[in-house]
Amino acid sequence: MTRTTRLNRRRRLAAVTAGTAGLALLVGACGSSGSDDGDGGGNTAGDVTADLDCAAYEDYGDLDGKTVTVYTSIVDTELEQQIESYRPFEECTGATVEAEGSKEFEAQLPVRIQSGNVPDIAYVPQPGFLKSLVADYPDAVKPVGDLASEYVDANFTEAWRDYGTVDGTLYGTPLGANVKSFVWYSPSAFADAGYEVPETYEDLVALSDQIVADNEGDPDIKPWCAGIGSGDATGWPATDWLEDVLLRTAGPDVYDQWVNHDIPFNDPQVAEALGTVGEILKNPDYVNGGLGDVSSIATTEFTEGGYPIVDQLCYMHRQASFYQANWTTLDPDLSVAEDGDVFAFYFPAPEAEEQKPVLGGGEFVVPFADRPEVQAFQAYLTSPEWSNAKATATPQGWISANKGLDKSLLQSPIDQLSVDLLTDDSYVFRFDGSDQMPGAVGAGSFWSEMTEWIASDKSDEDVLDAIEASWPAS
Question: Which of 118, 165, 314, 403 is most buried by a 10 A CB count?
Fold first, then answer.
């Protein structure tokens, strides 16, 4: 591809993305799929009640005439898919599930609790938000019922139970999940250049250096492209970078201490990890292919950050599993597959790592009522039957950490790969750090300071010190 062809394509992509940027949802912190596009680039949803066997629903009892209300941040096509996945429960128990989605969920849920207009169940997208709800409204949030608790133990790892537990009590059960430890690339571009998918972090750095050397004569071509723009939430993709690298340089135990503030935010181990991130994100030789200089990362929407890959202006883009929807937004004909136009590989760990860390996110089902029908529906949402119904209803962009999920029902190769990482014992999962931190940090200073780190070249030390100073005293 010639330089003129690439630049012309860049102008066309700019026009396309300018018209679609407003469609992006905040997905980095809440773990949603991030797109209203439910067709999966041509895939279709299946019938969730085909060959329905109600024997698996007998534990829920006869709930004829009962209603369960659900409040969630999930909207539009994704909400329709959620509602479709409830049909087996409704048909086998006689209950009715009424779901309401709102993009103002996090602001409105406390208002509804205070006004007495509380839902039976809410889908809470961050463990940190769950902790604040339990602290602020201890009489409103109910402990998880016995059956759902049993299903969590049977179908999920202990880590997922821990993320829904506050002060020793289970208040939230896992719902959906996502994997953030991915690097997007073009298999065909790698093949044309003779590059191989790196197996270790050291290989990743060596590959980046090789790409720089191979394209020394074209300053537009870089190993990496990135964007951290996300409206009021600008900066969250940079927090994911730090979290993923900290897991690799310091390990899961230190990561947990950092998230829980058992060590300060500006601990030397965190400083080392941020320096490692800077070796990529603040390296003008490495980034920001086809988009500008390093500072352009701060003004590039995360939804558009990986687009230069299709023009071979950059070769790699670190972003989560839910980013797959953005490729079909760019071009419905793009194939997301291991031998397709774009795909993703696991963000590799250092060679010395015994267990490979995986960063991810998800939502939790939190009850505000303990009526039998509410407890039964929450148990259903922790069952393999629901995970499989949801997979059937969703062409792409949804996965679960439920061990009973039938992976063959997942139509997207990225979704299948994500489930492999979540269920493979050689990988150790950790939940998005900013989602577990107090809101003033996780959705406040962490986002804004990482933005300044890029946009204004604020020093590592000053960024980490500022975030540490913002941590609430209690």
Answer: 314
